[in-house]
Amino acid sequence: xxxxxxxxxxxxxxxxxxxxxxxxxxxxxxxxxxxxxxxxxxxxxxxxxxxxxxxxxxxxxxxxxxxxxxxxxxxxxxxxxxxxxxxxxxxxxxxxxxxxxxxxxxxxxx
Amino acid sequence: xxxxxxxxxxxxxxxxxxxxxxxxxxxxxxxxxxxxxxxxxxxxxxxxxxxxxxxxxxxxxxxxxxxxxxxxxxxxxxxxxxxxxxxxxxxxxxxxxxxxxxxxxxxxxxxxxxxxxxxxxxxxxxxxxxxxxxxxxxxxxxxxxxxxxxxxxxxxxxxxxxxxxxxxxxxxxxxxxxxxxxxxxxxxxxxxxxxxxxxxxxxxxxxxxxxxxxxxxxxxxxxxxxxxxxxxxxxxxxxxxxxxxxxxxxxxxxxxxxxxxxxxxxxxxxxxxxxxxxxxxxxxxxxxxxxxxxxxxxxxxxxxxxxxxxxxxxxxxxxxxxxxxxxxxxxxxxxxxxxxxxxxxxxxxxxxxxxxxxxxxxxxxxxxxxxxxxxxxxxxxxxxxxxxxxxxxxxxxxxxxxxxxxxxxx
Lengths: 110, 410
Description:
heterodimer, A: mainly alpha, 3 helices, 3% strand, disordered C terminus, B: alpha/beta, Alkaline Phosphatase, subunit A, eight-stranded mixed β-sheet, two-stranded antiparallel sheet, 15 helices
């Protein structure tokens, strides 16, 4: 925060263990997928294959399908990938492993 | 003359979370402020053995409700009436929550988890906002049913006769609040979290009106750049997924069994985006509200709707799943709702059904209030929406000093 505020409430972080993209989808997400599938079918040209949504079991599967469909309907909503974090000692790392690629920074958003 | 809070109002922002009841999230606040219609500790439900199970301040952020509690129409009917029997003479008693959860292959102990509630210190963000601004004692979901039909009320003022997860009502002449606003020369947007989470119930709108959508990062940018629309609606992140360029994005909707803390962070971040821009802070009202109770206990009996101002639809017996038609004449279970503005005095509590002069709010109040405020006389909407209560009434003439309003440190 740039400005100093008088009344500040600290908000606890969510534990990393909360993340589970392998969680089975809820009824809510299942219906969200069905709705998008109806749109996909309505947009498909004759003979064009559509996604087999019976294979969408987890939140990761769901997020991939939703991204594909949302990008099609609303490409303006695409997030730009964050730049990879620069390695702190790039020159040293390069000497040790000349072919190694810089790892992508794993920062949680928000 | 309207109060200064309304006179200066330029933006209304609604953040709609998922599936938590009023008592579950805010019921513990009654011990701090008796005006808040929460829990005394004496509220109970019978379990499947007939044992009386009292509400307990032992809600967990995750893992307690991993069998997603039933909140479809027949399940909520059981929760409200305590029986699956239909017909005249039955009484709404809020005694069927454990019975309902026990039908989902939960153990006896697990089924008791539906009576758990959070203590105020577990939810620092929601607690802070509820005690600093205005909390509604009587905001109910629009239908005793699931997400999609309830969210439809927030966008259209009706669910077009649906009490389930069906979406396909595009033939109806009533248009969404976003389309109304744009047709009236105003700006409006729905911010979904990101493409991987996307939007929940308005796929038809996304298909046909993509210009009214943006992402959550766009919302934050619009707050920073003073380009926030007149009206906007924010959707949380509905699933866990990898972030762009690495990292992990957590679901922030608070839908069981997603971690409640991440929802707290989303609420705080949304509040901060408005609060830390002085120009926006003094001209914006933020409503944080939940779509429905998610099958979790609340002690307040949902009231009947005013028969003089009907929704105008009927859900047939085969659609409700109870064997009996539903005429949209009863509201769903109570949910948390908090209105935030520097024009609201600290500790404001809007009385609900516990007070003979209390007010009943539901999601039709969202398009109802936004339409009345920005468009005034707009006729193409249901009688129920037209008659819905205005949720901006807590705004007063007095602007609180900047030093009197909190900021969250994320």
